[in-house]
User: Fold this.
Amino acid sequence: MMINNVFLMLSMAFLLAMTFSNGAVFDITKYGAKGDGRTDDAMAIISAFRAACDSTGPASVLIPFGRKFVAGEIIFEGPCTAKPITINIQGTLMAYDDLSLYMNGAWMLLERVDGAIVTGGGTIDARGMNSWQYHSENGPLLPVTDSVNIGIDHLRIRAPKKSPNTDGIHLSNATHVQITDSKIGTGDDCVSIGHGTNDILVARVICGPGHGLSIGSLGKRQNEMNVKGITISNCTLRGTTNGARIKTYANSPQLSASTIYFQDLVMERVKNPIIIDQHYGSKKRGASNVKLSDIHFKDIRGTTVSPVSISLDCSSSNPCQGVELANINLTPFGAVGALKSICSNANVVNKGYINPPPC
Assistant:
């Protein structure tokens, strides 16, 4: 499935996958959807979903192949009696270009639906360029929040390199999430893992353009929750501004991020391949109160366009503990010069071959 400049909010238990159930099919054209590339079909789509949601047994909402369905704000709201319920996108869904229609901060909002499946070989096109001039500080394309047991796979997410604050997939307050076998190119982080996340796997993702695969930013707001158990593995980053990154705000509230693995990563012309930045958002003064521990950068190789290819800039009041660098082989791309590592307030254990030389 292709996602272009989309803003789709997912909440509660949700599954984004390439399989869907048998059962009753609710074709949106049977509920009045025109699919002519002009008419707002939002109410027809919502009506088809409502009928499927309220049915019994497996149910599927069909967006049929070969047509362009324009829609304003769509809220897929549960709970549903149908289990599982599938949204099968075979055609193209396009956001309506009248921004006054969007009142809930998202184009499509799926909430309080347990065991939902979104699948299909179609395209979701949010036509994000219409709203970028009004962009807020954060506009992730596929935010996943307040959710548990999420699978996201075989997606292609695309936004222009210069699109503002367009994280590809952003997680917050989410547990047991797997993001796999996808290709993401954006104007911000390909994947950003925010506060309150636990047991997260990101694997076999190709990232670029974008700002890399990031934990954070953390510590910007009060009442943020801890982060634990994050694995980013077997991914490739191409031409990104960052590679494996952890970022926390200075003068932050107290919280922790621990048991984080960046492993088996390939860097291709990446500016900052390995970076911990605990002075992110440097307009704030003071040390970060986000405690980082049990952090692993393992089996990372490739090329960089920056002489500082390992930067571990940790908090003076909460130094990083248990940082492992193992089997790192980074080489310069172009006229970069000799590579180096810079470390501050970091307790680092080096294992195996490390290039550039460790701090």
About this structure: Residues 42-53 form the longest helix (12 residues). Helices lie at 42-53. The chain has a mean pLDDT of 90.
